[in-house]
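Quick start: read one record
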Amino acid sequence: MSRLGMLYALNETELEKLCSKPNEERYDYMLEEIEEALFGSPRSCQLDKAWESIQYCLGGGQWNEENCVPNNIIFGGEILVKTDNEIMTLKNHQSVNEIVEYLHQNNLQEIIQNNFWNIDDENFMYKDNNSLDHALGWSEDILAFYENAQKENCQVIFTVDF
C-alpha cells in the first residue's frame, strides 16, 4: 500500500477529459495521462504519506472531509473517485481562491505544529517527532502550488491510492 498523496492543478481541457471517463477508469487515466504530464512540474505537489497527518492538523487534530476551507486543502472537495483502493477529489476555482486566501492568512506550518499532538492516537499511529517533521517538510510547497494553480486558472485534484 503506497498511500502517497498528490495534488495536481488541471486546466479546463484536462479536467474535462478526466471527468469524461467513467468513474472506474478515472484513476488509471490520471496515472497514465495527468501524472505522466504534470509530475515534477509546478502544477503538481507531492505530499508523500504526510497528506494524512496534514489533513488531521487542518481539522484541529480531527479527521474532517467537509468541502470547505481549511478541510478541503488536502482531502476534501467534490469526490471524483472513491473506491476501497483509490480516492480522487476536486477543488473548483472558488475553492482554490479560498484556499489561497486562507493560506495567506494562516501559516500552514504553525497549524501543523499546533495541531499535530491533538491527533487521536487510535486514528493515527505514527505520532512522533519524525512524523511531525515529515508533515512539516512535505507541506512546505502547498501554498506555492495553490498560488500557481490560481494564477494559471486551474482547478485542483487530490489523489491517493491505498
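The domain at 5-161 is CATH 3.40.1760.10 (Hypothetical protein yfbM fold).
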